[in-house]
């Protein structure tokens, strides 16, 4: 656990505040040895309210909710029209309007809470992607420089071999 926190501290320093003096090779080795990815899909401990808001948002955004809601409204209206004088909510359906308003008043904040939590997860994923991309970019850049150096050395060695061959022919 201590090593993990030390790695997190080092990578934060390397990626955010590169005040310490590192050679390029040391920096690359630190980056390669440090895992910066996070599993944003891991199960988190949710409170009852968070679980409820997620469930409401999931159900309220489904076709099942829309069809069941329309069915309940149609049954409510038909029942009250058929009961006429004995109806519990006569024609302008004032009680139905009150029920609809209460559902909307409770449902909207619950859905917004769920969306806020999802937005926080998305921000964390984006930050994680940025760090992974930055690490990859630094490592690829270092590999490119090393490959250029290898190619340059290969050219140098080829020239030396050609000179040696020419000298041996003479």
Q: Report how far apart the termini are.
A: 68 Å
What portion of the residues fall into strands of 2 or more residues?
under 5%
Described by strand count, sense and barrel closure, the largest sheet is: none
**Secondary-structure class:** mainly alpha
The average pLDDT value, as a whole number, equals 83
The H/E string reads: HHHHH
Number of strands: 0
Helical segment count:
5
Regions with little confidence, pLDDT below 50 for 5+ residues: none
- Rg (CA only): 33 Å
Shape estimate: rod-shaped
Helical percent range? over 70%
Please give the domain count.
Answer: 1
Provide structural commentary:
The structure is a single chain. The relative contact order is 0.09. With 170 residues, the protein is mostly helical. The model has no long low-confidence stretch (mean pLDDT 83). It is built from 5 helices and no strands. The protein is rod-shaped and about 120 Å long. It starts with a helix and ends with a helix. Helices cover 79% and strands 0% of the residues. It has one domain (37-169).
Summarize the structure.
The protein is mainly alpha-helical and 170 residues long.
Identify the notable features of this structure and list them briefly:
170 residues, mainly alpha, rod-shaped
């Amino acid at each position: 656990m201590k090593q993990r926190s030390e790695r997190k501290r080092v990578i934060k320093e390397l990626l955010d505040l590169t005040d310490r003096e590192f050679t390029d090779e040391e920096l690359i080795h630190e980056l390669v040895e440090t895992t910066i990815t996070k599993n944003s899909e891991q199960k988190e401990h949710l409170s009852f309210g968070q679980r409820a808001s997620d469930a409401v948002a999931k159900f309220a955004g489904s076709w099942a909710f829309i069809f069941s809601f329309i069915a309940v409204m149609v049954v409510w209206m038909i029942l009250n029209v058929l009961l006429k004088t004995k109806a519990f909510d006569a024609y302008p359906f004032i009680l139905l309007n009150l029920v609809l308003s209460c559902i909307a008043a409770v449902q909207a904040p619950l859905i917004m809470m769920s969306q806020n939590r999802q937005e926080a997860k998305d921000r964390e994923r984006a930050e994680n992607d940025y760090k992974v991309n930055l690490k990859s970019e630094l490592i690829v850049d270092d590999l490119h420089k090393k490959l250029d150096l290898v190619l340059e050395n290969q050219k140098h060695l080829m020239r030396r071999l050609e000179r040696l061959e020419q000298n041996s022919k003479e």
